[in-house]
């Protein structure tokens, strides 16, 4: 097992977990319930961690995370099917599950 992502915000760690799992990569969360130990352990030691189970999938998982982070500053997009606003990190509309149609320049 290899550590692929950690953050103080559990919501972000769970979001990365969901994205990685959507690519059929098995992962496990660690320190999911350790926030209550802050004070007894360092705050950094209590951050949630995401670990890839199969070391052979490490590179692919890190590429997915890198691609996701590179889109962090991109603008939101509107679904062509239902007109719902979606965050730039979504490749599929959260409302109707239609794929994001990227216009070619």
UniProtKB/TrEMBL annotation:
Keywords: Metal-binding, Zinc, Zinc-finger
SUPFAM superfamilies in the cross-refs: Ran binding protein zinc finger-like
Lineage start: Bacteria, Pseudomonadati, Pseudomonadota, Gammaproteobacteria, Alteromonadales
Protein name as it appears in the record: DUF2007 domain-containing protein
Name of a matching Pfam family: DUF2007
Molecular-function annotations in GO: zinc ion binding
This protein's record includes keyword Aminoacyl-tRNA synthetase: no
Source organism per UniProt: Moritella marina ATCC 15381
RanBP2-type domain boundaries: 71-102
